[in-house]
Amino acid sequence: MAKTNPGRFFEDYRVGDVIEHAVPRTVSGGERALYHALYPARHALYSSDEFARRCGLPASPLDDLAAFHVVFGKTVPDVSLNALANLGYAEGRWLKPVWPGDTLRSTSEVIGLKQNSNGKSGVVWVRTRGENQRGEVVMDYVRWVMVRKHDMDAPAPETLIPELKPALEASDLVVPEGLDFSDYDFTLAGEPHRWGDYEVGELIDHVDGVTVEEAEHMMATRLWQNTAKVHFDVTAREDGRRLIYGGHVISMARALSFNGLANAQMIVGLNGGAHANPCYGGDTIRAWSEVLDKAETPAPGVGAIRLRLVATKGGEPFTRKGDDGKYLPHVMLDLDYWALIPV
Amino acid sequence: MAKTNPGRFFEDYRVGDVIEHAVPRTVSGGERALYHALYPARHALYSSDEFARRCGLPASPLDDLAAFHVVFGKTVPDVSLNALANLGYAEGRWLKPVWPGDTLRSTSEVIGLKQNSNGKSGVVWVRTRGENQRGEVVMDYVRWVMVRKHDMDAPAPETLIPELKPALEASDLVVPEGLDFSDYDFTLAGEPHRWGDYEVGELIDHVDGVTVEEAEHMMATRLWQNTAKVHFDVTAREDGRRLIYGGHVISMARALSFNGLANAQMIVGLNGGAHANPCYGGDTIRAWSEVLDKAETPAPGVGAIRLRLVATKGGEPFTRKGDDGKYLPHVMLDLDYWALIPV
Amino acid sequence: MAKTNPGRFFEDYRVGDVIEHAVPRTVSGGERALYHALYPARHALYSSDEFARRCGLPASPLDDLAAFHVVFGKTVPDVSLNALANLGYAEGRWLKPVWPGDTLRSTSEVIGLKQNSNGKSGVVWVRTRGENQRGEVVMDYVRWVMVRKHDMDAPAPETLIPELKPALEASDLVVPEGLDFSDYDFTLAGEPHRWGDYEVGELIDHVDGVTVEEAEHMMATRLWQNTAKVHFDVTAREDGRRLIYGGHVISMARALSFNGLANAQMIVGLNGGAHANPCYGGDTIRAWSEVLDKAETPAPGVGAIRLRLVATKGGEPFTRKGDDGKYLPHVMLDLDYWALIPV
């Protein structure tokens, strides 16, 4: 057993450690096709090379969330194999589009540690960077997880809680080079609603639902080379159920949000996110959004919109937390992100 | 909710309207691989670039039915979101092969309207055209659907029932440029039977069966960006079952027909089709064919064969309708098409 | 029914027959993406073009087992449609990598025959070769199957049992042209263990498990154009269960073996293999390995390691056969192969 990876435990992390994650990955048209088979993805910029060219890009990039999943997947064996909970995300930025043929790799820097008062686990903050084969950072984000200790006698590290922005400023966002929405085709995009048509505070029920299957979430999770046992092995948890990778719920909800947000084309910022309740095979995922903020960008015709995306199974749309401030049981995801949209 | 697409209702259609459907789609080797993973597709011309070259084409095109599904899928949000029934197809023609890298878009012209006598719904006929990025029409077909009215007080439109050919003539068929079966390799194609070996009236039981799974039909239907709720959401119908996209049954039956019709390589005409009974996850699809007609084409070595393709779940092969002229309950599909086959 | 393929029966084989199998297949990035979606495949050389280049190859080839499945799948309609059992493999060699864009075809030569004493069936040995579009043999292997007789009165052929090596010698192995592990990146590969770190007799429990779904194994098996009814049709067997293609278990176990054997990058030899017990949807596959042998190769930095790979469902790791010499009921696969690993 000495040769297999036991994962890292809380006491194995030191602030400042940089972990180079294994198994780089070259993506192709195959990943794009699979992404569209696994999610009802319809944002035109990721569906059509011609549409992407009309928006100033050389071709249709890999879906923004697919890029996130690839970068994230590589971190799992080093960061979350012994995680008790995935606590949050912050300061996520998409810095360069990922093109078919690109090879992605990930590194994570430990930027915070805090042992829990029970002495049996602690919280680890990492800033993860995804790089392409030219050494360009294509995205980075912070996430924090609660990790078990293995050696309960290991001393508690000095507590360091990193300062993280509650949300990215519009000026933090990076618009892909060349992006230009001044000749945007709203007909082909599928909806007429532009930046100016959305108001802060507006709520959108995305109407459609998808009942998820075990084969689908496992195929998705494997495609991103995410190895966490709980997604694949019915014997890994006491209840005999496979827990669906939280990223599957993110992608499903984002794809469903096309209906009402068809022009929120590219995700460029991840302000925060909570996997509020687990998702299992057989659940029917629905989604609603709230407009949290709007901003201008320097790119021609390109505005930014900050959205809350909530994925639910059952329950009334637009309900999120109870009177006690806790997530209601039907809420699976509460994501806060910035997207680019034609003005 | 104002921003989501409610779909069109019967009173929203006018004869002569041209609807430009959204979300163009670039296809790649990923779509081909997925098509072969979802269906037991073995027609050699769509499986091997080398085989396609020996048949005079520059490479293996996207499967003819995959091209159909992409073109069709784009029409769903505008044509069949509020459809009560998909009533028929006519005058379908494949005009140009679709190659990896091509981007497809669809437009539909309303060519007929007839309000039902109950005043609550009506029949809409559309002629849909799929175009590639060079503006070439790659296929066109007529389909008609029964659509709900939303405003029951909307006046009935003038009835116009388009004149449609009961079947395409051989002279209507377009043989792909360069196609030449004079050096056709029957061994690599998988069967020795050529055009001359089939007789009008001949019946072929394709023997094999495939039990279909929810994950598969949803992946297929999403890949074509078909958004009809009933295929994905167990809460969309009273019986809690997901209705399988009729096109999934078409592709499954066509793939099964390889066994007996391995040389009926390319579909070039769709004369008509009925989705006789619904298909659900767990059903085992089988298929049989009847030779309806044969014709010559001007292309070297290329003949045309008109086939009835029937997909069933259970029941005796070659049974189709009862004494009352209605489809028997085990019949799911009755399709009438022209294919190209070596003489 | 005369036009469909009934498959060959025992009396239809003659020693020396060469069967050219139908339906050549062009592979692309789509097959790679699907392979990674269907199996938790993480060997870096098949995941990253950049990693493959650092190992002296022009790009990442199609996964070695995917190449095997494509070549194998073509033989099914001619060799195993009426097979009662897949008895064994020997002398399998990977001779050339398969690249995206390559087109594969297969031929099999009958090299042995032995009628069973009951007169109702017999064993057929074939040597199968997979060729690319340049006529280069990319792999060859021997397999033997028990096939039903159709005409019980057909005379028994002369018995010929081919002499087969119990295992390939290291000198039989073909290292891909250009392969060079002297600048191998162990960090990106995922584990530090090199050739010198493994000892003959060493046992490795690969820890992880995957619960398999019907949709997945059917998609995989179709992708390889394997048409055996028992994998797809619940009515094909009396118990109403779909038997999972043995190759699905091989690929799943090999992918799981990454955890402990991440550097056993390329499979180059197949010494033998037994599908000890059937696998069904819902089974949870685990794997363990035993180091059987080690050898040097002439390629820079490249060693060879001979491994036993055992796939199980339940049961204790490292158990394989009972006191009676028979496989224990939880053992599904016992495979003996050579892989290339950095020294």
TrEMBL record, chains A, B, C:
Database matches in InterPro entries: HotDog_dom_sf, MC_hydratase, MCH/BMMD, Thiol_ester_hydratase_Rv0216
Alphabetized GO MF terms: lyase activity
Name of the featured protein: Uncharacterized protein
Organism from which the protein derives: Roseovarius halotolerans
